């Protein structure tokens, strides 16, 4: 494991200077899921949630959140994102909804935090949209799956 780059010599937090880094293509993929009762999953899939389209609203919320990551995470650089996608799929075996987000940029720093923020906020939105039916839902497994590009190279989570 490498040294933490956001910690100064005396232990203070600071934003990393990326001005000397080369702009490269960078991509990050993150995932998470919301476990819920089967009846709650049915409501979401059939479009019967009281607040409306769970899939559409959560997808847009995740995309919007990725764009606001530097406003939410104190030491993140603001990035001109090239793309953000959020996919939400029903999983009867869980039961629940799985969220997968991909973020990309041509820049000097990675987009891992943007992908993770997209997943987190999409999951929180799913919870908010369905909480009237199931307050026992659980947001679980939010994690980075893969990152490509940059000085440190590619990384993929081993299964």
Automatic annotation (TrEMBL):
The lineage of its organism: Bacteria, Pseudomonadati, Pseudomonadota, Alphaproteobacteria, Hyphomicrobiales. It catalyses: (8S)-3',8-cyclo-7,8-dihydroguanosine 5'-triphosphate = cyclic pyranopterin phosphate + diphosphate. This is Cyclic pyranopterin monophosphate synthase. It holds the Pfam family MoaC. Residues 15-150 form the Molybdopterin cofactor biosynthesis C (MoaC) domain. It comes from the Bacteria. Homohexamer; trimer of dimers. The gene is moaC. It comes from Methylocystis hirsuta. GO terms for biological process: Mo-molybdopterin cofactor biosynthetic process. The keyword Chloroplast does not apply. HAMAP family: MoaC_B. Its EC number is 4.6.1.17.
């Amino acid at each position: 494991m490498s040294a933490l780059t956001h910690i100064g010599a005396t232990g203070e937090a600071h934003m990393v200077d990326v001005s000397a880094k080369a702009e490269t293509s960078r991509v990050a993929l993150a995932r998470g899921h919301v476990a819920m009762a089967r009846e709650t999953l049915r409501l979401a899939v059939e479009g019967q949630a009281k607040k409306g389209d769970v899939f559409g609203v959560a997808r847009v919320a995740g995309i919007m959140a990725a764009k606001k990551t530097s406003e939410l995470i104190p030491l993140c650089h603001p990035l001109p994102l090239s793309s953000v996608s959020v996919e939400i799929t029903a999983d009867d075996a869980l039961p629940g909804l799985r969220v997968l987000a991909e973020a990309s940029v041509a820049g000097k720093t990675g987009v891992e935090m943007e992908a993770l923020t997209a997943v987190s906020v999409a999951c929180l939105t799913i919870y908010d949209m369905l909480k009237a039916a199931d307050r026992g839902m659980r947001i679980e497994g939010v994690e980075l799956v893969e990152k490509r590009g940059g000085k440190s190279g590619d990384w993929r989570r081993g299964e």
